[in-house]
Amino acid sequence: MRIGLITPDPGHPLLAGASALLAPEHGVEVLDPGTTERLPGPPADVYLLKSRTPRALALAAEAEALGAPVLNSVAATTLCQDRTLMAELALGAGLPFAATRAFTSLAELAAGPPLAGPVVVKSHHSRRGDLVARVDDGAQLDALVPRWAGEPVVVQEFAPNSGWDHKLWAIGDRVYAAVRRSELSPGGRGPNLPLAPGGLPPGWGELVRAVGEVFALDVFGVDIIATGGDGDPLIVDINAFPGIRGQADAPAALAALALRRAGTGRRATAKTGCGRSGQV
Question: Suppose 126 and one of 168, 189, 218, 275 were both cysteines; which one would form an S-S bond, judging by CB atoms 3.0 to 4.6 Å apart?
């Protein structure tokens, strides 16, 4: 089999570990979207899309047009960059997702009616270095304007919680978990602390798998907070192909998934119409 990696960082621990397991019997080819504009030859049997840049998506789209499966698909990866579409799809499918309102810019939000209670303001387009901030009042919102005035944003209602994010990841049908202090907590984001899947509240593993089905994702992350007195789960973000660091058998699961999907064609598309966590 030939496995293509669409990534500028083939040394990432997850990809490097999977490549090392595949290489003895299979060819692993790296396509750096920063330097590669077209597929160099006939398509590989499967591609792993670990980049969200326009050029990376174009390479993946070319592979899909030639009939090669891509994990995750271009459509699913693109959807997970748009926080408005993400919320619409999740809520429409009955998933417990944070209610989300969109604004054309932060300046528009700041010029509008005063915000009622604490909210979380995020960039509309999920990317590295985007805006994710808790805003309790107009003064805090105004403080964001000098840097982010023209940034399209979404607003999610603040949901009281413990201040800990549950970071859940899936590779195929395998679910991994960790907990981490929210980046919006007073002390800032802390390290991921691995959590055995058996330590998750009942039904959370099934919830992650439901996200995969709704969003047509193969390798993904779901950020969940426990809200209310009963600790009800609330999804605050969904990510296509996260790093999944610190999970010992994740590279083996990824290698196995790539081989299973090789030559099987495209995954089904999202059922209708994916960041970082943002509540504390």
Answer: 275
